[in-house]
Amino acid sequence: MVSAGPITDQFYWVFANNELERYIVLSVEELGSSHSLRWEMMNEGFHVLWDSSRSRKQAIRYMELYYPDYKKFESVPVPVTFREACDFVNKHHRHHPAPQGMKFALGLSNGRELIGVLIAGRPVSRLRDNRKTIEVTRLCVHSAYKNACSKLYASAARIAKEMGYQMLITYTLEEEDGGSLRGVGFQFIGVTPGGSWHSKSRSRQDRHPMGPKRAWSLNLSSSQEE
User: Region Disordered: which residues (predicted)?
Assistant: First the structure.
């Protein structure tokens, strides 16, 4: 019998991918009331091994005892070209097409295929395009991988700082809570009115939501990231 350690009212599920020999432990809270994340996990090749662990520690111990060849899943950073990143965004992003250019792009793999990308470039707003600020213009991750967004944001912050930028900014839709951004140290700085970027001097074709956006910033000059 696997000891549960401290007992809580929370249950934990163990998902395993036989091809990758990797596992992920998720709480009922992380799965959500509709268990939509469960189906996303299954679409990614994970299946349920156990759905009633009383602690995360117990779930990990269970895997160590009964599936010693399986390792805890960790996404793997991989290089991506701009074209590869754009193809991924155009195929998987919920509401935005790929941007027109970039300063750099990052990729994450599950060990077999690409599961997420981040594209950073010049700020879309000319008011913020001061040569010291860089914007995460697209972040696109398969929703089954809970921590991939934070991992990409943290990597982007380190790279942007090394490139000499002082500020990293991005925008989210109003209904997105920004948990991954807060986890990396971004600060919520306000709501923008939205609208079109099209103008006579800078022609744009709007193919994205034009409602209000939540603006976020990370001060790289005071960041502790190395």
Answer: 194-226
Which residue in this structure is represented by tokens 């990308």? 117
Strands of the 213-219 sheet, one edge to the other? 76-78, 104-109, 114-121, 133-141, 167-173, 213-219, 187-192
Of 185, 159, 184, 190, which is closest to residue 172 (Cα–Cα)? Answer: 190
- Which SS3 state, helix, strand or coil, does residue 17 take? strand
Cα distances from 17 to residues 5, 29, 34, 60, 162, in angstroms, run 26, 21, 22, 15, 36
How many residues in total does the chain contain? Answer: 226
- Two tokens at 116? 């997420």
H/E stretch holding 38 reads helix 36-43
- Token pair, residue 165, equals 């930028």
Look up residue 4 and give its two tokens.
């549960």
Domains detected in the chain: 12-72 (no CATH), 76-219 (3.40.630.30)
Q: Which two tokens stand for residue 150?
A: 């934070």
